[in-house]
Design a protein that fits this description.
- By secondary structure, the chain is of the alpha+beta class.
- It contains 18 helices and nine strands.
- Strands 1, 2, 3, 4, 5, 6 and 7 form a seven-stranded mixed sheet that branches.
- The relative contact order is 0.08.
């Protein structure tokens, strides 16, 4: 067994440990007992492997080596359990969370006064905005919802007076768990906000760079709004900058019905598909695979930087970059191991991502879908090779592979299936590369010169108009199916079936390569 395969098994065991602890909550007395026994088994098997003469024969060496690997797998599984327990302990003992539970509940708690600094980009919507505020005393983070104006900026120091509450939970959605994965355990809705200090110089080079990124993002946003009008401007802001807050609910519903929401959202699926499209487009231009890989990596991270480096975007960027690396080296098994190892490292840093971050789940599943299913779709589309559109079909096969692998979890979480997604993606995906290129150029040039931005915006406007027309045509009530109360067992069965089918297709692909 190779070292990379052993490391892969250890990472899988660590993830399984986090999963088990999330589902069944293992008592610590059993945990430490299993940990003690596992350590004894590991040391015993290592001793027997290193001194074969004590056994009188070398026949048992493979067995004891296997016992050693199995012991380490169990050890990493237990470490996954412990890591999640540590995270849950820290959450339970968060000072601000305790303070919220004591005095700021929605059932009549008193107003409290807190002082802190806005440490992320304000999430601005049509009529209100959300601010992530790092509180000085007691330590913690509060998500503040306040009116649209006045506007606040990153690193503004503010004083907030209002009721501190625990995020809500309903039968359909846990806002508490959604925020908890980002270290936010308390919210304050429409408090009195006083600006204490602004234009504070950043304390570190990273804060300084982040501030400049947000400034440049705002310049791009204004450039887009000068050269485009809604809904074209809203679609381009979502595609280029990841801004969906100002998008109308009607437009969001149309995108969901047509199955095109992934194109204009900073999600795991979006980043992975964007990287795959970039690779296919550059290869179509005649670049070598190595050249296309490095340009695509730069393009992905430039995009994530322009969106303001959200944590979800960074995680998706890591997954997307590793997926492109797997494509570059041309080894599917290596790609699977690398992405799994990266996922385990992210979960070691924040184990709550496994259950509560849909973006993390989508990044991983989209990558796996493309690795295992895209070759099948590519072979399926080879019948069209005589029409010289292999690269276009490569883009489409990549998207279909990602969407099929993410469909069960999307249905489980949102309960909607688009019946026209296949058609709309066939019609829209071919223009995504041009939309991104002209969108980037027009918005960046528009910062320097409004006239130059307007000139480049003309072809982009036609592409956006075509996009809007497709959405309007296919966003009919009959085009979507709503499935309510999807049981988790359906999700498990779906991915078991997908895993078996993907494995079978992968083996057939290997046989074709060997026979050719």
């Amino acid at each position: 067994m190779t070292s990379s395969k052993i490391l892969f098994y250890l990472c899988v065991s660590f993830v399984v440990g986090i999963f088990l602890e999330s589902v069944i909550k293992i008592p610590q007395i059993f945990l430490w007992g299993f940990l003690f026994l596992t350590v004894i088994i590991i040391f015993t098997s290592l001793a027997l492997v290193s001194s074969p003469r004590k056994r009188g024969s070398r026949i048992w060496i493979p067995f004891f080596k296997g016992m050693t690997v199995a012991g380490f797998c169990v050890l990493f599984l237990l470490l996954g359990v412990i890591r999640l327990q540590i995270s849950e302990f820290n959450i339970g003992n968060n000072q601000l969370r305790k303070f919220s539970a004591r005095g700021g509940s929605a059932q009549g708690g008193n107003d409290i006064v807190l002082t802190g600094t806005i440490f992320g980009e304000p999430d601005v919507r049509n009529n209100w905005q959300k601010l992530k505020v790092e509180i000085e005393n007691p330590k913690g983070v509060v998500l503040v919802t306040t009116s649209r104006y006045p506007e606040y900026k990153y690193l503004d120091k503010i004083k907030i007076t209002g009721k501190l509450e625990t995020p809500s939970e309903t039968e359909d959605f846990s806002y508490k768990n959604y925020l908890m994965k980002d270290g936010i355990y308390s919210v304050m809705d429409f408090p009195k906000v006083e600006l204490l200090e602004t234009d504070i110089r950043p304390m570190s080079i990273l804060s300084f760079l982040y501030e400049k990124i947000l400034w440049f993002k705002q310049e791009l946003r204004e450039s887009i709004r000068k050269n485009y009008s809604p809904p074209q401007s809203l679609i381009l802001e979502g595609t280029i900058l990841g801004d969906n807050g100002v998008m109308s609910q009607d437009l969001k519903n149309k995108l969901n019905i047509t199955g095109l929401r992934h194109i204009i959202a900073v999600s795991g699926t979006h980043i992975v598909i964007l990287g795959a499209i970039s690779m296919s487009f550059l290869l179509a231009l005649g670049l070598w695979r190595g050249q296309a890989f490095y340009i695509s990596i730069i393009f992905i991270w430039l995009y994530i930087i322009l969106t303001g480096l959200p944590a979800s975007g960074v995680r998706a960027g890591i997954m997307g970059s590793l997926f492109l690396l797997a494509q570059k080296i041309g080894r599917q098994s290596m790609g699977t191991r690398t992405i799994t190892m990266a996922g385990a490292v992210m979960l070691a840093q924040n184990p709550l991502l496994l259950f509560y971050d849909i973006g993390f789940q989508l990044s991983f599943l989209a990558s796996m879908g493309i690795i295992y299913l895209e070759p099948f779709f590519r072979d399926l589309f080879k019948i069209f090779g005589k029409y010289k559109i292999e690269n276009l079909l490569g883009i489409i096969s990549t998207t279909f592979a990602a969407q099929i692998f993410t469909l069960p979890i999307m249905v489980y979480n949102f309960g909607n299936i688009s019946l026209v997604s296949l058609i709309t993606n066939l019609l829209i995906l071919p223009i995504v590369s041009g939309l991104m290129i002209f969108g980037f150029l027009s918005s960046i040039l528009g910062v320097v010169s409004q006239f130059l931005g307007w000139i480049i915006s003309i072809p982009c406007w036609f592409l956006l108009t075509y996009f809007v027309k497709i959405i309007d045509i296919f966003s009919q009530p009959w085009a979507t199916k709503t499935i309510e109360n999807v049981h988790w067992l359906w999700l498990v069965i779906s991915y078991l079936v997908l895993g078996i089918v993907a494995r079978w297709l992968h083996k057939n692909q290997k046989l074709k390569i060997l026979e050719s």
